[in-house]
Task: inverse folding
């Protein structure tokens, strides 16, 4: 059942979305734009030009203190202390069983200062978990005071350079800069969720409308909703929290062990080591189907007439011209090239396990 609108949080850009005719819907407890012109059109614009996304619903926590002595270093599957100032790192916050409480990015502002960016729906719980595990330092939830825009697409560098100068143009992947923009302190990060060249921009909430309108005044930029964002992320195989990963899933099962540093301490490490030794019973797979029809979340995955898994994400990919999806299956069926059947009621689609990303033609590393 859909959440009542009066219980939803709203972005500071809510009125701008409605003025643009956006289709609004609940997402992660927020009233968010799903599409404006249309999901396929917005997807194409991001792949070819520059799309602007309202991501103000994400959570941001500011930490100040000694990274190691406070216990922050032991919270995540990567080393915060090893992140150079001016860079960021992606990884996980786990429970004791190795399940993924959230996937997140940490930005190292200074030797004793970092920002943790988390998913919207999990933000309150994440904050409680992180704070409960710290033995020192100061952790502040700055989500309400912080707005976030994502400018993504091959033209995003040129667009942002016109506003921020050449320092934005020189940013390498997963690095960020602090600058004064519109008279306020702003973080510009070379990161994103689309597989295209792009930037994430963090600034005080009170200035986000002005920046939104300024960026959209550039003819190379159009607004895009969460529908296009989901399609873009799935074409490059990025996991969506709550669909493809959750507290019942470990990074090993999700095929994301590359973001786990077993050379350091972190909550959930012992459980992962035990799972690694025993063997992983289920694995996340990527697959294509021999149809333009989209496999949907919850569809069964079968082999030889037996159900061996379930689809967690699926769409029709405009770039591949067929349906694509992610799901979990018994490990014996996870090898690339394995032929499976995706089905639900009268729908039956032949599927083939493949590698990631599905789409390799993006401008991400440009």
Result:
């Amino acid at each position: 059942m859909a959440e009542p609108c009066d219980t939803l949080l709203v972005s500071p850009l809510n009125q701008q979305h409605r003025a643009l005719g956006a289709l609004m819907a609940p997402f992660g407890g927020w009233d968010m734009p799903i599409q404006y012109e249309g999901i396929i059109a917005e997807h194409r614009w991001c792949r070819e030009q520059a799309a602007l996304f309202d991501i103000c619903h994400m959570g941001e926590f500011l930490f100040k203190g000694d990274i190691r002595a406070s216990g922050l270093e032991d919270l995540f599957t990567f080393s915060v202390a090893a992140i150079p100032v001016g860079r960021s790192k992606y990884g996980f916050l786990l429970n004791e069983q190795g399940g993924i409480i959230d996937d997140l990015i940490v930005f190292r502002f200074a030797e004793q200062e970092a920002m943790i960016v988390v998913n919207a729906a999990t933000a309150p719980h994440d904050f409680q978990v992180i704070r409960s595990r710290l033995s020192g330092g100061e952790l502040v939830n700055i989500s309400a005071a912080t707005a976030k825009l994502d400018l993504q697409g091959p033209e995003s560098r040129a667009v942002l350079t016109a506003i921020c100068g050449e320092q934005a143009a020189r940013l390498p992947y997963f690095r960020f800069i602090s600058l004064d923009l519109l008279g306020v302190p702003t973080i510009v990060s070379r990161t994103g969720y689309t597989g295209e060249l792009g930037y994430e921009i963090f600034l005080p909430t009170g200035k986000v409308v002005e920046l939104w309108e300024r960026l959209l005044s550039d003819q190379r930029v159009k607004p895009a909703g969460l529908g296009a964002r989901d399609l873009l992320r799935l074409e490059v195989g990025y996991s969506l929290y709550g669909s493809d990963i959750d507290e019942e899933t470990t990074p090993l099962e999700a095929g994301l062990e590359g973001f786990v540093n077993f050379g350091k301490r972190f909550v959930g490490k012992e459980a992962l080591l035990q799972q690694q030794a025993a063997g992983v019973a289920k694995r996340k797979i990527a697959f294509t189907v021999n149809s333009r029809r989209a496999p949907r979340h919850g569809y069964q995955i079968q082999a030889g007439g037996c159900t061996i898994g379930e689809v967690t994400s699926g769409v029709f990919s405009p770039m591949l011209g067929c349906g694509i999806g992610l799901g979990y299956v018994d490990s014996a069926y996870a090898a690339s090239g394995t032929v499976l059947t995706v089905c639900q009621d009268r729908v039956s689609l032949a599927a083939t396990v493949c590698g990631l990303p599905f789409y390799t033609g993006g401008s991400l590393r440009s």
